[in-house]
Amino acid sequence: MAAAAVQHLAGHEAVAARYRDVDRAYGETRDLRLLGFMFFLVSDCILFSSFIFAYVYLRVSAPTWPPIVDGHQLPWFDTSFAAMNSVVLFGSGVTMHFALENWKHLNTRKFNGWLIATIVLGIGFLLGQAHEYSVVNISWQGSTMGASFFTLTGMHGFHVFIGVCYLAILGIQANRGVYTSSKYFGLTAGTLYWHFVDVIWVALFSLFYLW
Amino acid sequence: MHAGTSTTHDAHDVHDHIHPPPEGFVRKYVFSLDHKVIGFQYFFTGLLIMFIAGSFAELVRLQLTDPKGAIMSHQAYNTMFTMHGTAMVWLVLIPLVTGALGNFVMPLQIGARDVAFPWLNMASFWILPLAALILFSSLLFGGPHAGWTEYPPISLADGTAGALWCAAIFTIGISSTMTGLNFMVTIMKMRAPGMTWTRMPLFVWATFATALMNMIATVALSAAVGALFLEHVFNVPFYDAARGGSAVLYEHMFWFYSHPAVYIFIIPAFGVVSEVIPTFSRKPIFGYKMIAFSSMAIAILAFTVWAHHMFPSGLAPWLQLPFMILTYAIGIPTGIKIFSWMATLWGGRIHFTTSMLYALGFLITFTFGGITGVFLASVPVDLHAHGTYFVVGHFHYVVAGGAVMGFLAAIPYWYPKATGRMLSERLGQLGFWLFFIGLNGTFLPMHWLGLEGMPRRYASYVDFAKAVPDAVFWNQFETAFSFLMMASIGLLAFNVIWSLRHGKVAGINPWGARTLEWTISSPPPYYNFKKVPEVYGRPYDFDKPLPYRNTDNELDAFPEYGKTVMPTPQPVGAGV
Amino acid sequence: MSEVYIERGVALLGAILVGVTAIVQLKNDWAAHGLDASVTKLLLGLMALGCVLALLAAVNVLGARA
Amino acid sequence: MVLTLLSIVNALYFLYGSIDWIMPGASQPVTDRASDIDGLFKFMAVFGGAIMLFVAGYVIYFAIAFRARSSDSPDAVGVQIHDAPKLELWWTVLPTLLLIVLTGLSIVVWYKIQFGTAAPGLTTEVIGHQFYFEYRYPGLKTSVFSKTSPMHLPVGVPVRLLITSTDVIHQFWVPEIRLKAAAVPGLVQNLNFTPLRTGTFDVACSEFCGVDHSLMHGKLVIEPVAAFKKWLDSENKTAAAAGGAINLAAGTPATGQALFAQKCAACHQIAPFEQKLVGPGLLHITDDPAHPALVTGKTPTPEHIAEILQNGFTGPIGTMPNRQANGLSNTDIANLVAYLSSLK
User: Fold this and answer.
1) Is this complex's ipTM strictly greater than 0.85?
2) Chain D touched by B290 (CB under 8 Å)
3) pLDDT tens for each residue of B352-392
4) Are A205 and C54 in contact (CB < 8 Å)?
5) Domain B3-561: CATH architecture, name and number where available
6) CATH number at A37-210
């Protein structure tokens, strides 16, 4: 989305060169992009909220929970593994936070380390989810429990996957010198997105595993 | 367009950054980043789909001239009204009022050079034809035929066509969300210096309220149709009662979007009327703050009333009460607006241009639709009227008599700014009378037909015609009048194309209007404002000089500008 | 059975570690202002809450099914 | 001025009178709820009509009175006023008051509709199908189908309709009764009212339900209690002549078990009551300490179980099909009852 604004600034060198106060211009585009990104997060949050509403509605109106399929009550989800996996994801949030802090202080080596830690933890979480999918004994089609679980966690997993790719791209960009210590909106956006994905998982974790 | 205009720079002011216009047909007119071109693209696409969806409506009306169903099978009829509703709501109204009007007018009115994210804006537009293709391609698979609401479980019988319907709506939802987001940021961050929130033109307020709803509500719709899509394609049981799902859940999720959707069409129309009425009454808008804040109040209340569409549909009785009360509450800000517009007329110097006629017609038809809305808000009355032609009549008074009338008022009003030429007043006023008479003739009888017992979405009404013999006459009456509306839209299309070449040259400000877009040339240059204007007052004080500094943008190109503070209005004839 | 204890142990230790770190970071950033900073604070706070939930789950206070 | 006022009053009076013409059967209310709803509707029509006349009248009047004239200078402007707080206050407060009154009146009628009916003297089940309604009466062993025969209701008896569906969403609507409720699969809704006069009325489905939605039509006959009873008896006789009596003693549990797997297992399982599929678990059907009565409210004797198998039942959980729908013969029922009674 921000490509156009970049183009405004960088695409026409002759025009861009006329700027006396480049940082101020950057500040304005950054403001726009930041607000736009926040609104994107808001609308994404509503997408999750709608599906969460669907899940809560179906669960509350069901006669028994977990539902009964073919004569057998479905099992509850395995809380202990999910708790471990959640901690992995939350940990990646903290490491991402450290990565951004280090970028602000121009500590590129530490930034790289924390960013790689984040990506590794993110991939670890995805692998954990894959494991969860393979052992969980319900099907997507069989019941509302399966429908909500696989749809919501699948959407979330997709977000994590996109996030991992995004962070990897950010890492490459950062090492190529796209960002400086004062201009690093991409990293801010990546960090916010990653925190957002973590927080969505707080909701999903408590609704599926703790409720 | 002023291609190649040399860019003189005030290099110290970043606002004054002007980048050269794109060259080459594709970058200029197809994948343009310019909000004005994108506005045109929305306009012409919307108008084209409006013709298709309008012909579907005419087929629906023709079918009902005979109680047994005059021209097609039940299945075909069901497909027709489904496609009519779907295309009109998502591919015509929302793109026209937010995409076309919002895109063209809003950045000009806030003194911006473009929207915040031009590339995103372009992407939003190009999603629209894609969604239209997906939707219309569903006709190849028999078409969706469960009504524009596509309630499961009946919509699950639509098969591939239903899945394509979901895909189309999901896609267009992405476009709406992105447009909403883009406009929110644009209005919040890119207003000209000095344009405080209470100095914004009312159309901008309306666009802001609309963008808020677009951004928040549309995602809920995406979730609803997304889940429906999963159920269609992967057989995932969200709505299937046999596996614990709930059909009522879909209705909740669907109406959480689709009630605000009605306000998404209507609030920009409010904005248009709030611009047109003061301009042609030569009076400041009455109660500026009340109108602006009531738009926001409506936008926020819109999220709290969705279940009034579901009073008989399995809502817990105790839930009916809060939804009824909140729905009544919406009547208050709406009433304030209508009274404020009436008060603006009082003591004015009213010029009957086409725009003004549409605005006056809007006041009457929209008020009617609003009042029947109060009827439907009441649970007991709704238990009788729900799902009947009364609802169809009410809805069309609000949408055709409100949103479309507002849109039709906007076309002649901003056409001179967009093209540099005036629309033909004679054709325009003829078009107004055709539309106004056609609208009332088509939708008024629906109210009593509904109350007498005619349910909506009826492909034939043999039994009803036995009980109420008048029904046949009234249905034929409606069909006859509906063609007047169609003729009016045809006339508009002709007028729009004919006037491109043959219309009178408009000049900068043919209406003597006072918002910022009327201080630059018509059509506006690529960069809109050579210098970013400064604002030090509200735009509606007709007896004062314009409250703008820095608006001598075009003095060299248009010497007539600046001689009078308020240019002479066009001589206009009485409308009758 | 031992698998469960390992998982819970990891979750417990991890939740304490991550939660404490998150809260410390939150405290460090408390003075920062601006849209991104406030949203980050909100999200970090919610994440710390998530750690508390994971901790309670690990010690079988929450999510214990009979 | 006086003339204008008179014509407005006249128009409103006409509006008031026209309700009888617009609302079917308004001159002679068919149900107690119809008169309540019509009263509310008339009130709204008069006030709505007054507001409509006020707005349209003044818009047209202002448009004519304040039109620009050719004698105006081109720069002529209107009266430059921005606000009039007093006026704005009035037109905020007055509509608010009107809406509060309307809300109050609506709540009164709403309360009557939802909670105001005396204990029902007759509970009838209405089940939507594509594209007909099925009606089930207590004590009647067969269903009445709207395709072929009308629904019957006794006059003067409080009625409760339990409404549900087996396939898609339908809506049961009798315009003269003024009430409707959606028939949603998996959900049972009520309509409560008391018919006040006899007559024959149209029944329609008012929620789009598929290709032949517009043909989903039927009749409702409201008749004196005696005639209603007579009709019920004659239906019962026809049913008895078709079915014959069930010999419960002849049932064998083993045959019943096989039949259960074949006919019932899609919705029920041999498990405690709480373990529902579509219907409840039937393990302890005859002696369940937690549920001493069946969901019908009756004691679980073999006779009552047989009656449910024959007649079906619509209750808080959903719809149990009757034997026109499940295709059970008398022998089948006897075998099933024997099997269910043998479970412990």
Assistant:
1) yes
2) yes
3) 999 999 999 999 999 999 999 999 999 999 999 999 999 99
4) yes
5) Up-down Bundle (1.20)
6) 1.20.120.80
